[in-house]
Input
Amino acid sequence: MATIEVNDLTKDYGSVRAVDSISFTVERGEIFGFLGPNGAGKTTTIRTLLGLLEPTEGTASVLGADVHDEDALIDAKERIGYLPAHLGFNEEVTGKDVLDYHASVKGESRREELLEIFTPPVERPVREYSTGNKRMLGIVQAFMHDPDLVIMDEPTSGLDPLMQEEFNEFVRGERERGKTLFFSSHVLSEVRRVCDRVGILREGDLVGLEDIESLLGQGGKRVQLQTTDEASADLTALDGVIDVQTFAEGIQFIYTGEYNTLLRELASHDVREIEINEPPLEDIFMHYYGKDDAVESNQEVASDI
Output
């Protein structure tokens, strides 16, 4: 049985259809990334999986519990950890008080272990916490009862780069322990380090469901270089070159073709400076899932959707 199973799930907010008939499964022991720009429908899907929202149409099950079955879902939640995007902790109590409360509800078998890795100042009031410390406190509460499934909404938001890497290493270890992790993100570099598969949302539609290597291969590489006009013309004529932009003394483009072909062409010209890296998630959306949603990824409309 899949840990999460979603079938034709739809959620309407009056005039806005936040999620439109999406279907996917998440298998036991995998890390599943749920990708999309702000407003794509990621948080709505997560809240529906947790029974916090009622589907307009379709259904989903989590750890075998149908989201329409309140009693079954309550039982299943004993084995689920949840890290929301907006943590909403009581600012006047200490971090220890927050963890004590969650422990009284669901247990704390891994609390001390987690506090060795993620180090919020638990003796201080939450109002004194930085964004990163609040996020670490949230991570501890989500995992401390040793759940079978952890659902996270933008889990590394606010963490510094070193702690982000600690988190990535930690979740890889959780997968090795047989845990299932489902998390939303709009950061491709984050999901590529840890995810086995990804689902991609565009304006409420599931437009891609792929393993991570396939996604990165479709995204190609962003190439920026300074060279001559003649070289620029030859390079942009190659198969697999898209989204060409020119600037002083050079060009920038996305390359989705065979890399040796690009390297041979580069070697035949005078290249003064070059930078090759992954395109941002928005560019992958633009070239493979439609330009409109990539443009709209910058719109923070309905960011809670």
In short: The radius of gyration is 22 Å. The chain has two domains: 4-214, 221-277.
